Amino acid sequence: MKRKADVLDPQSQKLTVPDTAFIGLKADHPEYSSHRTEREQFQRLYLAEGPKGHICWVKGRQDNGDDSHRIAPSPVVHVRGLCESVVEADLVEALEKFGTICYVMMMPFKRQALVEFEGVESADKCVACGTKEAVYIAGQQAFFNYSTSKRITRPTNSDNPNSGNKVLLLSIQNPLYPITTEVLYTVCNPIGNVLRIVIFKRNGIQAMSVQSAQKAKAALNGADIYAGCCTLKIEYARPTRLNVIRNDNDSWDYTKPYLARRERGKGRQRQAILGEHPSAYSDNGYGPHCPLLPLPGNNRYKMSSHDIPEVVAYPLPQTSSYLGHSSSSVAMVSGLHPTKMNCTRIFNLFCLYGNIEKVKFMKSVPGTALVEMGDEYAVDRAITHLNSIKVFGKRLNVCVSKQHAVIPSQVFELEDGTSSYKDFAMTRNNRFTSAGQASKNIIQPPSCVLHFYNVPPCVTEDELQRLCTEHDVPGFIKFKVFDAKPSSKTISGLLEFDTKTNAVEVLTVLNHYQIRIPNGSNPYTLKLCFSTSSHL
């Protein structure tokens, strides 16, 4: 259920709406953060949900000007109206004058945060000060309210700066570009010497000391690695040490340079006469990285000259993303169902990870197609999230193609009667056509919950269920529609399926389906994407 979160501006006494919030949704929901700020006046009390179910009270006003509800003071304060570039250190610097801060939970996409003070007296001072006068964080006025939670739930038991843990867990949100050990080393080493990096579904970095780990968390939590994407969310990890067996793009031990490119269990390798690869072949599969956002020159968390050792024994990684793959914006997809997959359905699935230029089925290799995407980063995202998933009973194999473009040659008719080649360069259904549009897409792996939007308000749950039946795809088991403004011309919501495979098949078939309504001039294009929710 969607609700607007409103804030009473203490200076103008006007009721404004700095953000959009949801009741009943997790704070990391793409639907939670995808709506723009609205400037409207409301005269009711609403609740805004913070991370992991924390419900924060947002001050409202009745027609008579009095508060209709009060909430008991809490050590946890909900902070709103933050600027996009704010990091944890900015919050600590601005609010530590009110008392000792125990923990900070950043919500970068919502421009919000939860701050837990050591005592409720400190939270009282913070909220009271924010009511009487403007409090600025990183140069922008912020708003404060009590949370109904008395303590912020930590992700792990070891999430305590005094626990002695040197391992940080980095979650990369909206990863539009590849994240390698080289990227993370470049980001984190200026804060404190990095010893080991291991990249998996969530990323861990081991720093040299507790002090360095604390400094890295404060300086980088909430920051973007690249402008507008690859946002860092940092916590203390459960393990106290990282084990690295080889040095490559996914793991690196800077204390053991001899691990470089050694394959475990293979013994000594045969010596190659002409080296590792032809000189014309580039290891640097994706070219130079986009410029990293530099830390400010006066950043107090940056290592000073006397902190940097005179002799650095830890070599920088010399390889870039995906050894053995040349730079290409073309993906090769095999394992396609011969009768149920066509160019349009490939587009429906792959467009979630980048623009699609062309799709061509290969006549010489049945069940295989080439997909030309907007750039090599889109291919990387497609490989990461779609390789090995099952669609219509067959497991997809997605890899980088040796081709650098899709040429419309040997066009033939597929078994379903459609063409083996289709150009999507001019379609309006591509979702990464501009930087602003691309930033609204939350890169998400397939899940059993689909987010639907751009649906006419007259469409019911039964009609969507009937749509699945008519197209011979599995029906959903749970349905949820978000509350919309009375003036809204479309609705959105969530559909939960029995399995992830069912959700993938429904998205492949029904994404961009044209919904026509009686007496309507233009059809509505049903749009689907994977949700971050695991269930409703």
TrEMBL record:
PROSITE patterns: RRM. InterPro entries: HnRNP-L/PTB, HNRNPL_RRM, hnRPLL_RRM1, hnRPLL_RRM3, Nucleotide-bd_a/b_plait_sf, PTBP1-like_RRM2, RBD_domain_sf, RRM_dom. Keywords: Isopeptide bond, Phosphoprotein, Repeat, Ribonucleoprotein, RNA-binding, Ubl conjugation. One of its GO terms (cellular component) is ribonucleoprotein complex. It comes from the Eukaryota. GO terms for molecular function: RNA binding. Gene3D superfamilies: 3.30.70.330. GO terms for biological process: mRNA processing. Pfam families: RRM_1 (PF00076), RRM_10 (PF22976), RRM_5 (PF13893), RRM_8 (PF11835). The keyword Signal does not apply. This is Heteroous nuclear ribonucleoprotein L like. It comes from Scleropages formosus (Asian bonytongue). The lineage of its organism: Eukaryota, Metazoa, Chordata, Craniata, Vertebrata. The gene is HNRNPLL.
